[in-house]
């Protein structure tokens, strides 16, 4: 799901940065409004490490393979920290492994970071309910993780389909993009289940981690 | 009459002798030219070949208009012969479903057979990952120290 350098035109890359900047600014502003903005930095830092390394875990889904993203989990556990955490994780992935790219950092941050914030809002709806049973936490975690990948794939799909260069065989490239998008459907379920399980685990072991965001 | 027969026989003999001579008398010209064929192997960083990926080749004299387009085979391989009259940096772009890369290949008189291999070994990846992870863990430890 990481778009590398040289795939998108310069205007789209610039638009990606232009879109990522205000989201980063808003996230940092919301973090600064908290009583102790530094309190959750250790949690954010560790989950950034997880996000950074998890892209190496590939799940073979013939004819292609997909890798874990964990943006839903970051949204659920980190709240507004999720967007800057994903931005930093993507930066390291691009610089160290050319996974993604520096020109497409803004676009990739939007593709993976925005859904993380959406999954945070979804998980926060749990607070409306008075009783927070493990089942409810699990269900909200599942929906958050499921939706995060779903929205990411949708953004990825739209950005790529609208930017197929004329020199390529458009029909072939379009088919390849659809195939890759379809391969992410099982990943939605996998990440949903994983996010749900982690949310339930955290509620049992350390519920304040989930309630603090 | 006898003399005429003798002359005829001599002519025949000469013809018979000359035939093989004429048959082997064609000069043979063997031309040669050095053709540099470039083979592209496109793989994902997992090692999986980019089967069916689209390839676009740009010549050095016109980096905007594709010189050649094609498709990688099942092994992610694509072979082409660049125009030797266009020395310089040839650009090959490989792309499939929004994933892809670009490679710059020097073609010219001074360039013999070259091989460009990208990517890292598993050990490099593990070491680089561990360094970055330690950076994040260190940050977490720093901010979680007492009184922070």
What key phrases describe this protein's structure?
heterodimer; A: 213 residues; mainly alpha; Arp2/3 complex 21 kDa subunit ARPC3; two-stranded antiparallel sheet; 8 helices; 2 strands; globular; B: 148 residues; Immunoglobulin-like; four-stranded antiparallel β-sheet; 30% helix; 24% strand
Largest sheet of chain A: 2 strands, antiparallel
How many β strands of chain B by DSSP? 6
Characterize the main sheet of chain B: 4 strands, antiparallel
Mean pLDDT value of chain A: 90
Order of helices and strands of chain B: HEEEEEEH
% residues in beta strands of chain B? 15-25%
Write out the strand line-up for the largest beta sheet of chain B, numbering strands in chain order: 3-2-5-6
Hey, which two chains have the biggest interface? A-B, 36 and 34 residues
Spatial arrangement of strands, main beta sheet of chain A = 1-2
- Return residue spans of chain A where pLDDT drops below 50 for at least 5 consecutive residues: none
Average predicted confidence as pLDDT of chain B? 80
* Beta-strand proportion of chain A: under 5%
Number of DSSP helices of chain A?
8
Name of the level-1 CATH class of chain A:
Mainly Alpha
Which regions of chain B have little confidence, pLDDT < 50, spanning 5+ residues? none
Number of strands of chain A: 2
**Which descriptor suits the 3D outline of chain B?**
rod-shaped
* Helix/strand class of chain A: mainly alpha
Q: Radius of gyration of chain B, Cα only, in angstroms? A: 33 Å
Radius of gyration of chain A: 17 Å
- State the CATH architecture of one domain in chain B: Sandwich
